[in-house]
Amino acid sequence: MPLRIVLIVLTAVAALAIGLILRRLLVRRLEKTVLDEWLVQVIGIIPILPPLIIAAFFAPAIWDSAILASEWVTVQRFLQSHDTLGFAGGFVETLLIIVLGLGIARTIMKFTIRGLGESRIDINIRTLMGRIFYIITVIIVIFWVLSIWQISIGLPVAVLGTLTVAFTFAIQDILKDLFAGFYILLERPFHIGDIINIGDPNHPGGRTGHVENVEIRATKLRLTSGEQVTIPNSLVFGGIVVNNVYYGDRRSTITMTMTQDEYNKEETSEKILKAVKEIETVMVKPEPAVFLSAYTGPQITLTIRFWIANGQIATVSEVMYTLRTLFPTSDLTVVESAGNE
Fold it and tell me: Could you tell me where the beta strands, DSSP code E, fall in the chain?
């Protein structure tokens, strides 16, 4: 009996050793392909199984030779009552489809990520698109395997459809932000670093700031006041977006209210125009303009319009200071801040 136990153990060890050697040879070959490491390791398990199955078949025979005859009779009966070749062919075909399907799915995912990278699309979107194609390919492989074994796909399809509808309904707001994020990243109406104004019905005048990041679900802005705001992409997609970087110059408007006694029809407008034109950062073309915009009782309101280079927000302050020096008793209001505030 001790000898039989030793022989069984040696048989198991030899089978395991042969399987590990075959696995090592197969893994070395697969590592040179496009397959991922995890897939290579999974496929590497296959060569270990045949030696272990053979060892498991002969181990009882070592313990008792009569068991081998009984096992052989059982195998013969199985072979006679089943289509062995068909079963083996289906098993091999299933194995090949799974291996090739996973390899093709992974290859498609890599090519998708690499191809979209040439369009300067965000890495998060590229990864997501690659994974979507990977999942679609895997689903196709699963249904293909079910068809090989003639398993009805009606129930899996019904369950998958029900879960898809329920899941879509539960995350419909997230999906809106997701597809809006796809549009922003593909169409690129603005880029990271641009100064944009996003209209918001709950925030009169919208929000203006530098684009810090465009994510799948939201766009992050750094406002001119310093706060960081995360705006859902659905609001960006459905709102009015003004990209201030697209224009090399911006118009600014200031209103000046003074008493009728201070206003001189011939001199006041000329004095204002002369003072504004003397400021170096005010653009010569288009020319600044001054016109009478309101006449309320004893008060007169003048509107001053001038153009400045994009980002020259200090110019507005300089114009305000100059006009305040010329007309110290007048009220000044910035109506258009050149889109920089």
Answer: 195-200, 203-214, 218-223, 228-232, 241-243, 249-259, 289-296, 299-309, 331-337
Task: Give the tens place of pLDDT for each residue, 30-70.
Answer: 777 766 666 676 677 778 778 877 777 677 666 666 655 66
How far apart are alpha carbons 4 and 65 in whole angstroms? 11
State how far the Cα of 316 lies from the Cα of 334, in Å rounded to an integer. Answer: 8
pTM of the shown model: 0.42
Q: What domains appear along the chain, each with residue ranges and CATH number?
A: 2-82 (no CATH), 104-170 (no CATH), 184-246 (2.30.30.60), 249-337 (3.30.70.260)
Phi, psi of 104 (to 5 degrees): -65, -40
CA angle (92, 98, 103) in 5-degree steps: 125
CB of 218 closer than 8 Å to CB of 235: no
Cβ neighbours, 10 Å, residue 89: 12
Task: Check whether 311 has a pLDDT greater than 80.
Answer: no
Structure tokens given for 291: 């016109």
